[in-house]
């Protein structure tokens, strides 16, 4: 009866002990409970746990985890302990039996334990395996400070205790693994939400400026990083230049944004672009890795050391640039955050590629629209070429010789001459004879452009740069890239705009109105003016340095009054051109009319002559040009105007019939037998076609 009572009492004690052990939630609380039990029983003074790495299935003996309580009753734990793994617990893998050691023998056999300094002073040591349903978990170590060795009864009692402890250890490990998995899932869920939010935020932005601002805002919100920059390579192949879009949060949630340019050569950005690998480094205040970082560090952290994280932006086989993050708290760049930031960089690269493609399409669309506008203007101006320059007088031949010389070069040309002398024709001839003939020639009349709009028209403007700037606009310099820009009446350019024009002539780069991005162009400049620029320089109305830049190769076009020998040819050419445009037939110009026109002063030059011819064609009722000279506003060179009766008489009334016959034959030979038309014999002789045919019939000359 007494034995049964003791057995029930023992069973009740084991059940209560098992319940107590299984209620423990952590290894520390389990150790405290085991320590109380063995101390109450007088079996041991301290308890520690050495557990194998249950995650390393292939080789669980490489590392172990240690759990103990120090003399001050504070928990002690070590993970991934390799020296301890080679101690007594290693023998349990091959022989899971209880081990008993004296202190001196244990340290002699396992000297690495002394180096670890994990155990308080002890005399006896007992290691009991922890066997559970899942297998060998590790061992439970018991130490005592008195000289009494562990007896067989002590070992049996500790073995029974460790059977219960193994179940508790297994439960705690399962619980910790479950909590770890839950934590991992929560982190993955949070990371997924961040990626979804960033993806939705950036992929909806097609404007590059808006995109970079949204990227900075989102990264700052989720990671509390105060300095975010995006560095994008130039589209040009092998370009060493890049655009920097920097956002600095100097105050909480107050973004300060700026755009700048940088040279990639030798920079950390270039290193990351080439390697395609993330770079994490510390930057001391004395180090300078670019102008935007210098400004950033002065604003945010001054003399503090910063951690810089640079991630490549790659899409497909293209390296678009880098995402650059800076912070003084390096813990922002932990392993988990860096993994997410790398995934964010991949999505940013897609968004940047979309924005760049959209920007290129938009730019091409605007360029085509503006090209269409300018090409329409040029088509409407008859698109003359070198062959439309009429006149072979010595002075004009000298001008054309200069045109041939300068056309093959790229130097600036300044065309000087009075109003109406044909400066635009000379400019177009220079373009058409040069190497840029296959590119466009863009022109601008500076006198016809309001001063307030001239800068925008020349250099373009950004959206919102001024009232009414509802969209980005390309200027004429961009449209003339790789071609020629002709500035007519260049002397009318306002003095305050001249330095910007000088800069583009020197550097071949400029900024749009309201923008800070440098745009590089390759433009050949041709300027023209009817004003005395040298005198304007003396009067401080025109910059001397700009004048010298424009006046590299001056060409002076002579006025029409200085080349009267060209007037007959000009009259014939203009009559034919204007008559064709008006769908009229003018096949004869009286010789006397040509002589009269050649003796006039023509203060308006070729333009005035063209206007006179146009009016004459309009008023002519027959096929012979009828020029009403008395309506001109300056004195006529001759006292009388030849009457129509005389105009229709023979070319030279004083000539004999034989001389007249020879004259007509000579002219027919020169015109290859052509009688009618602007280059026919009738026009040269100043006769109507029918009159000439009648005289030829009378003189026995056969018409071809």
TrEMBL record:
Residues 389-618 form the Sigma-54 factor interaction domain. SMART domains: AAA, GAF. Keywords: ATP-binding, DNA-binding, Nucleotide-binding, Transcription, Transcription regulation. Transmembrane segments: none annotated. This is Formate hydrogenlyase transcriptional activator FlhA. It comes from Rahnella ecdela. The gene is flhA.
């Amino acid at each position: 009866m007494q034995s049964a009572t003791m057995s029930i009492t023992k069973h009740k004690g084991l059940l209560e002990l098992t319940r107590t052990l299984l209620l423990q939630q952590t290894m520390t609380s389990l150790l405290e409970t085991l320590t109380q039990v063995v101390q109450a029983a007088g079996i041991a003074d301290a308890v520690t746990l050495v557990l194998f790495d249950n995650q390393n299935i292939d080789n669980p003996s490489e590392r172990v985890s240690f759990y103990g309580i120090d003399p001050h009753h504070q928990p002690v734990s070590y993970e991934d302990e390799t020296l301890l793994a080679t101690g007594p617990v290693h023998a349990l893998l091959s022989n899971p039996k209880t081990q008993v050691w004296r202190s001196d023998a244990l340290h002699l056999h396992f000297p690495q334990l002394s180096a670890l300094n994990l155990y308080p002073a002890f005399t006896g040591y007992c290691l009991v395996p922890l066997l559970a349903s899942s297998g060998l978990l590790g061992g439970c170590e018991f130490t005592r400070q008195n000289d009494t060795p562990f007896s067989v009864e002590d070992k049996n009692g500790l073995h029974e205790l460790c059977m219960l402890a193994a179940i508790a250890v297994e439960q705690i490990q399962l619980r910790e693994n479950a909590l770890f998995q839950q934590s991992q899932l929560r982190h993955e869920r949070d990371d997924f939400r961040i990626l979804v939010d960033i993806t939705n935020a950036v992929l909806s932005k097609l404007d590059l400026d808006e995109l970079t601002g949204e990227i900075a805002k989102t990264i700052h919100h989720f990671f509390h990083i105060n300095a975010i920059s995006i560095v994008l390579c130039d589209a040009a192949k092998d370009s060493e230049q890049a655009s920097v879009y920097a956002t600095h949060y100097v105050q909480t949630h107050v973004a300060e944004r700026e755009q700048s340019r940088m040279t990639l050569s030798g920079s950390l950005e270039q290193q990351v672009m080439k390697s395609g690998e993330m770079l994490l480094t510390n930057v001391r205040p004395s180090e300078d890795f670019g102008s935007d970082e210098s400004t950033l560090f002065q604003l945010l952290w001054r003399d503090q050391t910063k951690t810089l994280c640079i991630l490549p932006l790659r899409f497909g086989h293209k390296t678009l640039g880098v995402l650059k993050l800076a912070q003084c708290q390096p813990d922002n760049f932990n392993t988990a955050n860096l993994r997410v930031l790398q995934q964010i960089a991949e999505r940013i690269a897609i968004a940047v590629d979309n924005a760049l493609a959209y920007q290129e399409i938009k730019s091409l669309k605007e360029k085509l629209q503006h090209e269409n506008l300018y090409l329409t203007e040029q088509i409407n101006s008859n698109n003359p070429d070198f062959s439309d320059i009429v006149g072979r007088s010595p002075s004009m031949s000298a001008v054309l010789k200069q045109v041939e010389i300068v056309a093959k070069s790229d130097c600036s040309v300044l065309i000087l001459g009075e109003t109406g002398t044909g400066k635009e024709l000379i400019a177009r001839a220079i373009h058409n004879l040069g190497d840029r003939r296959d590119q466009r020639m863009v022109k601008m009349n500076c006198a016809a452009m309001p001063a307030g709009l001239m800068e925008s028209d020349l250099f373009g403007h950004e959206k919102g740069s001024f009232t009414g700037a509802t969209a980005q606009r390309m200027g004429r310099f961009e449209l003339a890239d790789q071609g020629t820009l002709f500035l007519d009446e260049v002397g009318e350019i306002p003095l305050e705009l001249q330095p910007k024009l000088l800069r583009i002539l020197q550097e071949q780069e400029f900024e749009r109105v309201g923008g800070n991005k440098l745009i590089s162009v390759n433009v050949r400049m041709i300027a023209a003016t009817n004003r005395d620029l040298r005198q304007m320089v003396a009067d401080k109305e025109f910059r001397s340095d700009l004048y010298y830049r424009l006046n590299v190769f001056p060409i002076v076009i002579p006025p029409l009054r200085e080349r009267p020998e060209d007037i007959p040819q000009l009259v014939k050419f203009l009559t034919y051109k204007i008559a064709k445009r008006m769908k009229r037939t003018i096949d004869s110009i009286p010789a006397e009319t040509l002589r009269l026109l050649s003796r006039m002063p023509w203060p308006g030059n070729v333009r005035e002559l063209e206007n006179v011819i146009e009016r004459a064609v309009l008023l002519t009722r027959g096929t012979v040009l009828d020029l009403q000279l008395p309506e001109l506003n300056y004195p006529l060179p001759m006292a009388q105007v030849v009457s129509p009766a005389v105009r229709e008489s023979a070319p030279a009334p004083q000539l004999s019939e034989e001389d007249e016959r020879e004259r007509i034959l000579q002219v027919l030979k020169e015109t290859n037998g052509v009688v009618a038309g602007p280059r026919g014999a009738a026009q040269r002789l100043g006769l109507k076609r029918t009159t000439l045919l009648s005289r030829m019939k009378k003189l026995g000359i056969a018409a071809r």
